[in-house]
């Protein structure tokens, strides 16, 4: 009987840790990172269309205490910001190399 109780307890702990895998602090950090990545490309006027909308959705999920969604959306927005910056840098190298104005 104790063995079954221990197995059940371990199972419940595993499930609860999966459900509460993200905290408010993690969501706030992820949103801040997404905003920083977005700001870099917005400053050079090369931001992608949906990134700001994604950050807004992440903030809404944070407000609704859906931290898992907030982190997920914010990480995608951060990646978009990083990709937009890489695209901008590639275009600048291409322009310099080929003398395109």
Number of helices: 4
Radius of gyration: 20 Å
What share of residues is helical?
over 70%
N to C succession of SSEs: HHHH
* Beta-strand percentage range: under 5%
List the domain count as a whole number: 1
Shape: elongated
Distance between the termini: 77 Å
- What's the average pLDDT? 87
Structural class category: mainly alpha
Q: The biggest beta sheet, please?
A: none
Overall number of strands: 0
Q: Note poorly predicted spans.
A: none
Write up this protein:
The protein has 101 residues and is mainly α. The protein has one domain (22-98). It contains four helices and no strands. α2 (24-43) runs parallel beside α4 (67-98). The longest helix is centred in the C-terminal third of the chain and has 32 residues, at 67-98. The radius of gyration is 20 Å and the shape is elongated. The mean pLDDT is 87.
